[in-house]
Amino acid sequence: MVDTDDDPAGEAFEEMGTDGLGLPVMAALGSVALALYFYYVRGDKQRGQFVGLWPSTILALASFFKLEEIKEGIEELSD
Asked: Are 74 and 4 in contact (CB under 8 A)?
């Protein structure tokens, strides 16, 4: 069993919590809904496909920034 008192990564994870991706997830879901609207309701298939590519980009950027935040937290704790 690993003791989190000696583990800077565990401490950083506990401090940051799990609610850090709420807004990007909502934006990605909104993008999916918008893509479905364009594709099926408006009949603009090209725009629907274009907007349908946004969620993966939004979530990738959110993951990148969250990982950078975690990395900085670990560096602060290890100093």
From this structure: no
Average pLDDT in the 8-16 region? 56
DSSP state of 74: H
> How many independent structural domains does the chain possess?
1
Render pLDDT for 16-60 as a digit per residue (tens, 0 to 9): 555 556 999 999 999 999 999 999 999 999 999 999 999 999 999
Domain that holds residue 47: 4-78
Q: Which pairs with CB-CB distance under 8 Å and at least 24 residues apart come from 58-63? A: 58/24, 58/27, 58/28, 58/31, 59/21, 59/24, 59/25, 59/28, 61/24, 62/21, 62/23, 62/24, 62/25, 63/21
